[in-house]
Specification:
This protein is an alpha/beta fold. The chain is built from eight helices and 20 strands. It has three domains: about 70 residues, Beta Barrel (OB fold (Dihydrolipoamide Acetyltransferase, E2P)); about 220 residues, Vaccinia Virus protein VP39 (Rossmann fold, 3-Layer(aba) Sandwich); about 40 residues, no CATH class. The strands form five sheets. Strands 6-19-20-18-17-14-15-16 form an eight-stranded mixed β-sheet, with helices on both faces. The chain has a five-stranded mixed beta barrel with strand order 1-2-3-5-4. A three-stranded antiparallel β-sheet has the order 8-9-10, with no helix packed on it. A hairpin with a 6-residue loop joins β9 and β10. The N and C termini lie far apart (about 50 Å).
């Protein structure tokens, strides 16, 4: 099965950096088809695809478009010579014009919200993925890199869904002066909206140079924190959102940042040090909320990992009856699933923005505002 080739027309884009292609599974019955999640292609193209993963009993296969018979008008020559079938797996959309990349990402977000959260209307239908300054032509934006070190002193990147290492001498999405992921012994100073934050060398910080500013501005705009309000910052990292919330709620308000990673929690305490009404709780969000802070909060910032917050955390949030929740999501499927859970509790999506923080890849960042009906 692997290595078999088919000629087919490419269907719609799907979540994950590929498009849906259907190939016949029974020559005698053209109606019998199997889905192949296919990379390096665009909707509407005629391609020759090669199966890269799959067996006869699988419900779907994976493949690469190895020959383009009819090209989409949105197709471009990949700027990186290491992009393509069997090469570096770091980028999904090098073959797509940058504006069209954003249209593909918007289509994925819309599809996930429609299918998983049962949402429709202008908020979803009119969604666009916005450019963020700092990535000219979609290149040279990634401020942190993680390479595979090779025995001869060179470095490389892994092929898609593989342990195979592709030696490279230049990564075109790396920012000038991008540093390799450091060790925990390092402390890095990062900046957002004019404020400095301490981050461990191997800790989390957004890799797009304009990401932190864009996300902070959007969260504050959505929540409109007022003096005296109480706010929870969940999955708080080094306290990025908590610091700006503390500014807004002032001495009469209160901010609690909850973070599972002990090193990030220590950084958050340092970063929030000047704010007497801000505190940091270190531990898994679900456990901390189950054991502590069982009181009303006005605002919540929710910035979970890729798998989302899930029901147990959402239930704990709504138990505190916030007037508004700003949900920062790096995965539209997880966002849609969690929005559906919030809806069960009477919280509805009232504002939504999406940002292209990862050009040339399929990844997209969303900020959603959920308010009580």
């Amino acid at each position: 099965m692997v290595g078999e080739r088919f000629t087919a027309e490419v269907g719609p884009v799907a979540h994950g950096g590929h498009c849906i292609v259907r190939v016949p599974t029974n020559p005698a019955d053209p109606g019998q088809t199997r889905v192949v999640f296919t990379r390096h292609c665009l909707p509407g193209e005629q391609v020759v695809l090669e199966i890269t993963e799959g067996t006869e009993g699988d419900s779907f296969w994976r493949g690469d478009a190895v020959e383009i018979l009819t090209a989409s008008p949105d197709r471009v020559d990949a700027p990186c010579r290491f992009a393509g079938p069997g090469l570096c797996g770091g980028c999904d959309f090098q073959h797509v014009a940058v504006p069209a990349q954003r249209e593909l990402k918007a289509a994925v977000v819309r599809e996930q919200l429609t299918r998983l959260a049962r949402l429709d209307g202008p908020l979803v239908d009119d969604l666009v993925v916005e450019e963020v300054p700092g990535a000219p032509d979609g290149l040279h934006w990634r401020t942190r890199m993680q390479y595979v070190d090779l025995p001869d002193g060179r470095h490389g990147m892994r092929a898609h869904r593989s342990q195979t290492v592709i030696p490279i001498d230049e990564c075109l999405i790396a920012a000038p002066g991008a540093r390799e992921e450091g060790s925990a012994r390092e402390t890095i100073v990062e900046t957002a909206a004019g404020r400095e934050f301490q981050v461990e060398g191997d800790g989390f910080w957004q890799v797009h140079p304009g990401a932190a500013d864009a996300l902070v501005a959007t969260v504050l705009d959505f929540l409109a924190p007022a003096a005296g309000e109480k706010a929870l910052d969940l999955y708080a990292g080094v306290g990025l959102f908590a610091a700006f919330l503390a500014d807004r709620v002032g001495e009469s308000g209160r901010v609690v940042a909850v973070e599972a990673d002990a090193k990030a929690g220590r950084n958050a305490r340092d970063n929030l040090g000047p704010f007497r009404r801000a505190s940091v709780a270190v531990g898994p969000v679900e456990r901390v909320l189950k054991e502590s802070y069982d009181e009303p909060f006005d605002l919540v910032v929710l910035d979970p990992p890729r798998e989302g917050a899930r029901r147990k955390v959402v239930d704990q949030i709504v138990d505190r009856a916030p007037r508004a929740v700003a949900y920062v999501a790096c995965d539209p499927a997880a966002l849609a699933r969690d929005i559906a859970i919030f809806a069960e509790h009477g919280y509805r999506l009232t504002r939504l923005r999406s940002f292209d923080l990862f050009p040339m890849t399929h990844h997209v960042e969303c900020v959603a505002l959920l308010e009580r009906s």
